[in-house]
């Protein structure tokens, strides 16, 4: 596959925002109210999956019940409420500079998140208004099968302009998100912004792994030059 990128599809939590510590706290507090045990590590390992899917899996595993999506959504609404009580997560260091370089090089920016928290989506449209619009955002409500299925990233390509997999780049921080990008056949870059090991991202098939967003930003020019050189040959 010859990479000929036209759009970069960013995950949101842990990529655009340093928000995963808040999510871990909110998940633990909310699920405790429903008798569900959830650790901070669980939150990181299931990151990227639709919240209602995470809840249905944990209820089945811990309580032996199969719950409807409606009941799971009610539980997820409590997690959203808890998240809203926490301090606002900062924009991830380096991500705006990276987007500026991508836009300079003529690439579109899209967002593909497993989140269904509408206030967060509205914040994205404000914080990243120079790079992304509502039409190019995929949320939990846009797909039936969330990450690690390829559907969210395939939808991201479609929303961006019906692009082919070799015309996209995925930027992820979570194993399930990396798996989704790889399953979609898209060149996938993992940025390890959390407590998981580098190997947890590499084993899911990430094409490149960086230990921070600034490191990925610093590598962009050489990376893009090498792609253009290959395409032009």
How do the helices and strands follow one another from N- to C-terminus?
EHHHHHEHEHEHEHEH
> Briefly, what CATH class of the largest domain?
Alpha Beta
Q: How many whole angstroms does the radius of gyration measure?
A: 17 Å
Counting helices, strands and paired strands, the structural category is alpha/beta
The proportion of residues in beta strands is: 5-15%
**Multimeric status of the protein:** single chain
CATH superfamily placement of the largest domain:
HAD superfamily/HAD-like
N-end to C-end Cα span: 14 Å
Distinct helical segment count? 10
Count of extended strands: 6
- Return the average pLDDT rounded to an integer: 93
Per the CATH scheme, the topology name of the largest domain is Rossmann fold
> Strand sequence of the main sheet, in spatial order?
3-2-1-4-5-6
- Shape field: globular
**How many domains make up the coordinates?**
2
What can be said about the biggest beta sheet?
6 strands, parallel
Level of helix content? 40-55%
Uncertain regions: pLDDT < 50 for 5+ in a row?
none
CATH architecture of the largest domain: 3-Layer(aba) Sandwich
GO molecular function: sugar-phosphatase activity
Keywords: Hydrolase
Pfam families: Hydrolase (PF00702)
Organism: Hoylesella pleuritidis F0068
